[in-house]
Design a protein that fits this description.
The protein is of the alpha+beta class. The protein folds into three domains: 3-80, DNA Primase, Chain A, CATH 3.90.580; 86-187, Alpha-Beta Complex (DNA primase DNAg catalytic core, N-terminal domain), CATH 3.90.980; 192-292, Dna Topoisomerase Vi A Subunit, Chain: A, domain 2 (3-Layer(aba) Sandwich), CATH 3.40.1360. Helices cover 30% and strands 18% of the residues. The protein contains ten helices and 13 strands. It has a five-stranded antiparallel beta sheet with strand order 5-6-7-8-9.
C-alpha cells in the first residue's frame, strides 16, 4: 500500500481522471482542509511529495496531514511511507541560496558518535528523528571543526536555520548568522514541527534537552525567550516550563510563567531532580512524559 492508497483507506476522497484538475503524476484530494474547497483543487505531487491547491497554493506534507489527522503522530505516518527524513531537510537546504550551511556538514563521524553515546544518546536515533549531522576537520573554517550539526525547522518541517554543538572543549554552541538563515532562530521553537496538535508542550532551553525528552518538547535556544517565541508557546493549551535548576535560570523560568499567565490555558514551572533536562536519567524522563505527554 502506498501513501495515496493509505489516504483512501482513511476516508480521504481522491478524485479520478474524470476531474478537470487531474494531472499525470499527481493525486487530487476532493477536499482541501486549508481553504475548504471541495472540487479536487488540492493536488499531491507523488514524486516531489508536496501538496498544491489551485485555490490556496503550496502546502507541505506536515501542514496537510496535521489538518487531516489532528490527533495523530504525523511523524509516524511519514516514516511509515518513507515520505520524510530530517536528513532531506539538509540536502534540500544545501540547494537554497538563502540558507547557507557550514561547508563540511556530513554524516556523524566516530568521534561524534562517541560523544553522544557518552552523554547517553543513541546516535542513530538522533539522526533518524532530528536529522543531525557532523562536521570534522575544516582548516578553512576552524571554529566549526568537530561539531554536531543540528538543522532547525519551522512548524511546517521546512529547514530555516541551524545550530551546532562542539564535542570538544570550545565554545559550546554556534548558530547560523543572520545572513545564513531563512528565519531568525530566536523566533523559532526547536521541535515544534513534531507536534500534531496544540495541547501540551514542554519548553526547555537547548536542543539536547529536547533530544532527551523526545517529541513533545521544544527548545528556545538559551535562557532568554523572545516575544516571538513567547507568542508561539502561548498557542499551546498547557505549557510546562522545564529549564535548568540553577537559581538564576529558575528565576527566568518563573518570569516566563508570569508572562504566559495572561493567556488562556495553563502554565506550569517544573524543576527536575537532574541539573538540566538534557542530563536527566531515563527514569525521570519516563515519569515526565507519563505526566504530561502520554
Amino acid at each position: 500500500m502506498n501513501f495515496v492508497d493509505y489516504l483512501g483507506t482513511r476516508g480521504v476522497a481522491i478524485v479520478g481522471r474524470e476531474n478537470k484538475h487531474y494531472r499525470e503524476g499527481w493525486a487530487n484530494l476532493l477536499y482541501c482542509p486549508i481553504c475548504g474547497t471541495n472540487k479536487g483543487h488540492l493536488g499531491y505531487n507523488i514524486e516531489k511529495q508536496y501538496f498544491n491547491c489551485f485555490s490556496c497554493g503550496w502546502h507541505s506534507l506536515w501542514e496537510i496531514l496535521r489538518e487531516l489527522f489532528p490527533n495523530e503522530n504525523i511523524h509516524d505516518i511519514l516514516l511509515e511511507f518513507e515520505l520524510y527524513s530530517p536528513l532531506q531537510l539538509v540536502k534540500k537546504a544545501q540547494k537554497q541560496n538563502n540558507l547557507i550551511l557550514p561547508a563540511k556538514v556530513g554524516k556523524l563521524l566516530p568521534a561524534h558518535c562517541e560523544y553522544l553515546e557518552h552523554r547517553g544518546f543513541d546516535p542513530n536515533l538522533l539522526v533518524e528523528t532530528w536529522g543531525i549531522g557532523g562536521i570534522g576537520i575544516d582548516p578553512a573554517n576552524p571554529k566549526f571543526q568537530w561539531r554536531i550539526f543540528v538543522p532547525v525547522a519551522d512548524f511546517k518541517g521546512d529547514m530555516v536555520s541551524w545550530t551546532t554543538r562542539a564535542i570538544g572543549r570550545t565554545l559550546p554552541y554556534i548558530s547560523a548568522a543572520k545572513n545564513q538563515e531563512v528565519q531568525p532562530i530566536k523566533t523559532l521553537l526547536y521541535g515544534e514541527q513534531y507536534r500534531t496538535f496544540y495541547d501540551t508542550i514542554i519548553v526547555t532551553e537547548g536542543v539536547f534537552d529536547v533530544f532527551n525528552i523526545g517529541v513533545g518538547a521544544v527548545a528556545v535556544f538559551g535562557k532568554a525567550v523572545t516575544p516571538a517565541q513567547r507568542h508561539r508557546i502561548s498557542r499551546f493549551a498547557r505549557r510546562v516550563i522545564c529549564f535548568d535548576n540553577e537559581p538564576d535560570t529558575q528565576e527566568q523560568a518563573k518570569q516566563l510563567c508570569r508572562e504566559l499567565s495572561i493567556f488562556s490555558g495553563e502554565t506550569l514551572n517544573l524543576c527536575l531532580d537532574a541539573a538540566d533536562p538534557g542530563s536527566a536519567d531515563k527514569k525521570e524522563i519516563k515519569r515526565l512524559r507519563r505526566l504530561f505527554l502520554e
